[in-house]
Q: What sequence folds into this?
């Protein structure tokens, strides 16, 4: 039963939030920042996977089969974040997507104020 639930979590994660990482990463960052951002995001993703692998036996002994409810709650929270915070990008140009991501307010700070410098020849 537990092995089946583990396989189900892997399949659902790979088809859902696991696949979103690369897509959202390519839409959030401008072209010049994408390689560095992709490296950092994937390093963080692998680091959390390693931590999950290390702590999973302790979670199983502590929570038994209720461990999967913890994973389900994390997936629900991620889905709510994606649904309510991230803007829709279907059918929009890269510049429009970039402007929408800049308009997102995080901790009371908006990134839409751009600093421009003028040069005179």
A:
């Amino acid at each position: 039963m537990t092995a089946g639930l583990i396989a189900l979590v892997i399949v659902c994660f790979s088809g859902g939030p696991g696949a979103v990482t690369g897509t959202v990463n390519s839409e959030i960052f401008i072209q010049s920042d994408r390689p560095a951002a992709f490296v950092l995001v994937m390093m963080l993703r692998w680091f959390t996977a390693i931590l999950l692998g290390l702590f999973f036996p302790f979670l199983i002994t502590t929570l038994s089969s209720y461990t999967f409810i913890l994973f389900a709650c994390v997936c629900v929270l991620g889905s709510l974040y994606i649904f309510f915070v991230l803007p829709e990008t279907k059918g929009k140009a890269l510049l429009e997507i970039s402007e929408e991501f800049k308009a997102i307010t995080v901790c009371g700070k908006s990134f839409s104020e751009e600093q421009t410098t003028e040069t005179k020849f």
